[in-house]
Specification:
globular; binds guanosine-5'-triphosphate; GTP-binding; nucleotide-binding; Small_GTPase
Length: about 260
């Protein structure tokens, strides 16, 4: 598989997650596949392939901590309310193509909601965050989504429902919350993830999944529309990845969920 990858300037590898793999696959492919998403090299950081991702949810559910865990690998126990919006840019190289994720961290506090909502427009992905140890934050998730969707095209925006603070929940409570969350995610057609910014559990896999899917929905479909050779190469490589994954999954059928 490696030989068919486009030549890419070596850089610090941050992910071994092949494109288009499911969430379960991402969990199980870490040691088995070659790199498809890398941190972009310095000269590629000016690339114009950008996806806007907005992060919404109740006050103090952990939106800022989630983003900071991924972008800075830090965690702050002290709560500092986001005022309006914050912004982080994360740069990738996906199968040789530079790609940037703009992560918009919006305020959960009611008094800032109006300011934050002015930044919702033009999102390629919406991440609705709730706290796995707080039922009302899941109850409110639908309202956050409806709000965030108002200025966006429902047919093209990618949706993610993310439960944070997995480390805090008692196993029984967690199981019950997850059942509810999965039901909601199916209803709103969002992909569901459970993470912990404190321990880092699943945070990186989640954002790399967001990067893969938004890359596919934005850059790759543009390349395909222009019938570019690069798009054909990328599709070919992902198909190979898919085959390799099927073989891998067969071999590891006992450990895959
Ligand atoms: N135990 C635990 N605490 C967390 C986790 N994520 C966030 N927290 C804590 O939850 C509190 C709120 O986190 P923030 O990330 O600031 O919440 P927010 O959603 O950005 O809040 P607003 O800016 O007000 O909307 C902080 O005290 C964090 O330390 C987690 O995964 N586990």
């Amino acid at each position: 598989m490696m030989s068919s990858l486009p030549s890419v300037k070596e850089d610090r590898i941050i992910c071994e997650l092949p494109l288009y793999f499911t969430r379960d696959a991402a969990v199980h492919t870490k040691d088995s596949f070659n790199v498809t998403v890398r941190e972009a090299s310095q000269e590629q950081k000016t690339g114009s392939n950008v996806a806007k991702v907005i992060v919404v949810g109740d006050v103090a559910v952990g939106k800022t901590c989630l983003i900071n865990r991924f972008c800075k690998d830090t965690f702050d126990k002290t709560y500092k309310a986001t005022i309006g919006v914050d912004f982080e840019m994360e740069r990738f190289e996906v199968l040789g193509v530079p790609f940037n994720l703009q992560l918009w961290d919006t305020a959960g506090q009611e008094r800032f909601r109006c300011i934050a909502s002015t930044y919702y427009r033009g999102a390629q992905a919406i991440i609705v965050v709730f706290d796995l140890s707080n039922y009302s934050s899941l109850d409110n998730a639908r309202e956050w989504l409806e709000d965030a969707m108002k200025d966006n095209d429902p047919s093209s925006v990618l949706l993610f429902l993310v439960g944070t603070k997995k480390d805090l929940s008692h196993p029984d409570q967690l199981a019950q919350m997850e059942q509810e969350a999965i039901r909601l995610s199916e209803e709103i057609r969002a992909e569901y993830w459970a993470v912990s910014a404190l321990s880092g559990d699943s945070v990186r896999d989640f954002f790399l999944r967001v990067a893969s899917l938004t890359f596919e929905a934005t850059v790759l479909s543009d390349l395909e529309r222009n019938n570019s050779r690069q798009a054909r190469d990328i599709v070919k490589i992902s198909n190979n990845c898919d085959e390799d994954f099927k073989t891998f999954k067969k071999r590891h059928s006992n450990c895959c969920r």
